[in-house]
Design brief:
Length: 195
Amino acid sequence: IVYSLFECCCILFCLGFTTRQSEVIVSALVKIMNTNLDVIYMDMVTKVQQEIALQQVMSHIGGVKKDMIILEKSEFSALRSENEKIKLELQQIKKHVMDEITKVRADNKLNLNLEKSRVKELVSLEALQISSFCCFVFKHAQQDRALTQTDRKIDTEVADLKTMLESHKLDNIKYLAGSIFTCLTVALGFYRLWI
């Protein structure tokens, strides 16, 4: 309820205060109200000041956005270059593994061919010995037994080679999968850092 100064003085006068007391109380109340209003006005800002502050905040936000974009681009290019390095390393490792597999295959083919030529020589010697001896049947059985053992040896070595090749292939797949998961983990780590 808002009263004029005169009404306040009248109310206080009706309550038993003298005119002088009423005037002093009303003037004290007016001073208190003015002081409170000054304090309230000091805490308030004008529309112009508010717009200036808003413009300053927006310019700071714009600067931060630009910095974030620049930082994100530099981090992305660094991540891309790291990814390229890993790809090159994987290609080198793959080439090295393929070279090793080629060497193993060549060595095994050479050993197999040597074993075959040795077996052929044995067979030819056996044939000569069989023709020179009377016991054709006995020698023939020995030759068959030697051929069977040689075939078993060849089959065993071929099976060992296949097992070794499958093992190398599995190791290569494991290494490649591990490398891919490592790259993905690094990429997800960087992604989580920037989110």
